[in-house]
Amino acid sequence: MAESTVPLTDAETDVLIAGAGPVGLVLALELARRGVAVRIVDTLPSPTTESRAIVVHSRSLDHVEMLGVLPALLDRSRVARGMAMHDGDTTVAEVSFEGIRAVHPFSAAIAQTDTESLLAERLQQLGVTVERSTALSGFDQDAEGVDAELTGADGRTRRLRARYLVGTDGARSTVRHGMGQRLEGSFAGEDFLLGDVEGEHHYDDSQFHTFFSPGTGTGLLFPLLGERVRVFAQLEPGIEPDRPVTVEWLQQALDERGIRLRIREAHWLTRVTLKHGQVPRYRDGRVFLAGDAAHIHSPAGGLGMNTGMQDATNLGWKLARAVQTGDTAGLLDSYHLERHPVAADVISFTTRLSAAGTLTNPVAQHARNVLLHLGLGIPAVAEKMVDRVEQQNVAYRHSPIVGGSGGTLKPGDYLRLDDTVVAQALARHPGHLAIRVPGRGSPEPLPTPLPDGIEELAVTERDADTLRRSAGLPHGGLVIVRPDGYVGHIAADAPAGLRDYDRLLSGVGGEETALQHAVG
Ligand SMILES: Cc1cc2nc3c(=O)[nH]c(=O)nc-3n(C[C@H](O)[C@H](O)[C@H](O)COP(=O)(O)OP(=O)(O)OC[C@H]3O[C@@H](n4cnc5c(N)ncnc54)[C@H](O)[C@@H]3O)c2cc1C
Fold first, then answer.
1. Do 153 and 291 reside in the same domain of the chain?
2. Cα dist. 459→121, 367, 425 in Å?
């Protein structure tokens, strides 16, 4: 386990995380498995019983694998291998996830409660317990750390000093408020009826289903384990906010949207109004925001929790490095620069998805259906759509902390190889990986010893061949993989590549240069 720079007392920690939802738990795991002292507090006396987000997408599954939780998560999931779009009884388009270039070319449908309990169990194995009935109620920061005020259920307060504070405290975030930030964006709230129910239906259990519905709003159906399904019915604006949600109302809403599901039993019924919004800055000095605290959007596409979990994966290794080496300049700013555009893109995608699903003009509906049918019949178009839904399109090519050359595989891209499961290597070694790509007939070794925190990842000849072609290294070279699985650097000259990458991570050139680079 790596040491923190200065010994800590009981009233101090390296990182304080406010909020033990899925995002806070992933962040705590990312820090704890790197030996960083972490405290995680939550207002609730016990975990939520609301199943909420029910999809873990393909890219997030890789990250879950790095945390050592994947087999348990898949045990409790139904695997979804595609999606279908329906207009009444007509299936307008179907797309399969199986063609995507991913280690796990599918989604896992699992209740958020199960996802959270698996993450919390793993965290406990690493010696960290969520401190419940404990709310973060205020904070101040200075150059060296953050003074946090914690309030217990009895109203008593205590103070905790942390080097860094991360607000993963959800849509009503106290940390966001304390940073003086607001969610900004389009505030046309979308109103959904939502149910986890059991009942008969004839839809393919290995697909997610979207139902377009003129005038009444989109419907969604996600098969879960066993007989259970999650259904959403988007409501027309103006329905009285206090109307109680009943099985009868949900059944009627499903019928109106042409969803042929007979509800037998309801496990959870609720109504949710969601707005689209994002904070302008994910970082203010030593305080960060991640997950719903930083961005909220429509549940269409099931991207909310996934985007948040990936925020945590991105921030985790950077905070660990900052704690352990003191290097913070460009590295910590790169969290905002890399992750803010991802959530902005999700918001724009889900807004368009919702708008397409609720067209009322029959001519526009017909055009949409024809376009979807023809468009998604073209493999390249279908692939693009699926990459988006499965978040395989996420890359950080414009990040100031990636560098070097490249071919079709560029610095900032996520690395997937045919034989070597990079996520498994990163589960064993939570630092950087260096892949030596030998030139044909010239097996030049990597410089030894490798810098601290970098371990060599040996790949098969087939993977090396792929990298020679895709990374633009016909005569061999070096590919550095970041702890989150993205390519950090590609260089033909391995020693120079290692030096250049270290300079990038250490923020040589200053934060302003890094920011200008990213914006440019
Ligand atoms: C009804 C509903 C249905 C949803 N359905 C879907 C879906 O189908 N698909 C999808 O992708 N997303 C869905 N979402 C959104 C999804 O649940 C969120 O994106 C996800 O929970 C975000 O995780 P998080 O960890 O950022 O925040 P949260 O899960 O909200 O967790 C925040 C935690 O912080 C705690 N907290 C709050 N304030 C403080 C404080 N001051 N101090 C300490 N702790 C604090 C809270 O108790 C909570 O445990 C749904 C949300 C709701 C409400």
1. yes
2. 32, 48, 11
Amino acid at 134: T
Which residues line ligand 1 at a C-beta cut-off of 6 Å?
A: 18-24, 41-44, 52-54, 112, 135-136, 168-170, 174, 194, 270, 272, 291-292, 299, 302-305, 308
176 CA to centre of ligand 1 in angstroms: 14
C-alpha 21 to ligand 1 mean position (Å) = 6
Examine residue 92 and state whether it is found in any structural domain, yes or no: no
CA separation for the pair 132, 326 (Å, rounded):
30
Total count of domains within the chain: 3
CA pair distance 281, 166, nearest whole angstrom:
13
The CATH number that applies at residue 195 is: 3.30.70.2450
Give me the tens of pLDDT residue by residue for the chain, a chain 520 residues long: 344 456 666 669 999 999 999 999 999 999 999 999 999 999 999 999 998 999 999 999 999 999 999 999 999 999 999 989 898 888 988 888 887 788 899 999 999 999 999 999 999 999 999 999 999 999 999 999 999 999 999 999 999 999 999 999 999 999 999 999 999 987 666 788 999 999 999 999 999 998 887 667 788 899 999 889 999 998 887 888 889 999 999 999 999 988 999 999 999 999 988 778 999 999 999 999 999 999 998 776 678 899 999 999 999 999 999 999 886 678 999 999 999 999 999 888 877 776 666 666 666 666 666 676 666 666 777 777 777 777 788 999 999 999 998 999 999 999 999 999 999 999 999 999 999 998 876 556 787 788 888 999 999 999 999 999 999 999 999 999 999 999 999 999 999 999 999 988 887 544 433 333 332 2
Domain contains 68: no
Of 30, 43, 130, the one to substitute when testing ligand 1's pocket (max ligand atoms within 8 A of C-beta) is 43
Which has the closest alpha carbon to 300: 352, 259, 235, 238? 352
Do both 208 and 298 map to the same domain? no
161 and 20 in a common domain: yes
Measured between alpha carbons, how far is residue 241 from residues 190, 236, 248, 273 in Å? 12, 12, 17, 9
